[in-house]
Amino acid sequence: MRETTLKQIAETLGISITTVSKALKNYPDVSASTKKAVVELAEKLNYTPNTFAVNLRTRESKTIGLIIPEVVHHFFSNVINGIIAEAEKNGYLVIILQSNESIELEKKQVEHLLNKRVDGIILSLSNESNDDNHIKEIIKRGIPFVQFDKIAKLINSSKVIINDQKAAFEATEHLIKKGCKKIAHIRGPVNPQNAIDRFLGYKKALEKYNIPFDYNLVYTCKDVVFEEGIEFAKQITQQHPDVDGVFIITDLVAVGFIAYCNENNIKIPEKIKVIGFSNWFMSKVITPKLSTVDQPSFEMGVKSFDLLLEEMNARKEQKPFYPKTIELGTSIIERESSK
């Protein structure tokens, strides 16, 4: 069945297309009786506005793109919720794409969103991201753009971040203040800036408290998954049985570490204290409960959309916009694994 058009409504009522359009938009220069007749006929014929045509006129799609490394990740799922909540309040739909930590897929997804003519893009980089040409293309085309969490520092765009180095310093310091003398670090892959900053924060805490840094106590995740926590727990406890504290890049890996220790009767926190990062829901249900760094993930989503909206509105009104960086606070959540 063909869609009802403004022209059909106009011809049926014997009025102009312009009058029909104005009536549907409740313009004051159209009489109440004409508005009533137009609205009633439009409802009867199931008329819906042609959003494509509206978008062409307004040069808006009322759609934004969101690219994240993982949808199932507890942190990113909360970010998504924050972005969607704000987007809906402001009449925007969100296209959510998952890069699966692949730079090639991330590039294709950026190109796809640009071709879809979305009004703006929010992005957290994949772990493989070591080439920013696709991001520069977003800037070059003048598309409003916000980075969050895993970012490219040198790209001139708005950003929503935490101070990963400070948070990691505080996590390592927490272990030191609990009496740990030999602390290992399970870090993230080499590329992401947040993994680099968390490693640097760990090193700075050791330096401040005069604990010798030992590269042999640093273990690097490839995929940042539960299984790596199990494997590194095995290596650390066998290769360095005197390690009494571990700072771990994220809670998922930390839960794997605890699982191995539980299965092999390695007491936490008596033998080894553990602290993770992100404050996933699982950190509260594992035994012992996991101490962690709390990241304000929902708020990060809200702030990311708000910054994007600010830039989109500025461009729409042809006003200058200068990229901003919002840094959100973190806190240590002390639980049983480090007491």
Task: Please characterize this protein's 3D structure.
By secondary structure, the chain is of the alpha/beta class. The protein is 45% helix and 15% strand. The chain contains twelve helices and twelve strands. It has a six-stranded parallel sheet, with helices on both faces. A four-stranded parallel sheet has the order 7-6-8-9, with helices on both faces. Strand 1, helix 5 (74-89) and strand 2 form a beta-alpha-beta unit. The mean pLDDT is 92.
Write the layout of secondary structure elements.
Blueprint: H1 6-13, H2 17-24, H3 32-44, H4 51-58, E1 63-68, H5 74-89, E2 93-98, H6 103-115, E3 120-123, H7 133-140, E4 145-148, E5 158-162, H8 164-177, E6 183-187, H9 193-208, E7 218-220, H10 226-239, E8 245-248, H11 251-263, E9 273-275, E10 292-294, H12 297-316, E11 325-328, E12 331-333
Parallel strand pairs: 1-2, 1-3, 3-4, 4-5, 5-11, 6-7, 6-8, 8-9
Antiparallel strand pairs: 10-12
Q: Helical proportion?
A: 40-55%
CATH topology of the largest domain: Rossmann fold
Largest sheet: 6 strands, parallel
How is the quaternary structure best described? single chain
Quote the average pLDDT. 92
Count the beta strands: 12
- Rg of Cα set: 26 Å
Task: Report, as a whole number of angstroms, the end-to-end distance.
Answer: 68 Å
For this structure, what is the CATH homologous superfamily of the largest domain?
Response regulator
Give the CA-based shape.
elongated
Q: Which spans of ≥5 residues are poorly predicted at pLDDT below 50?
A: none
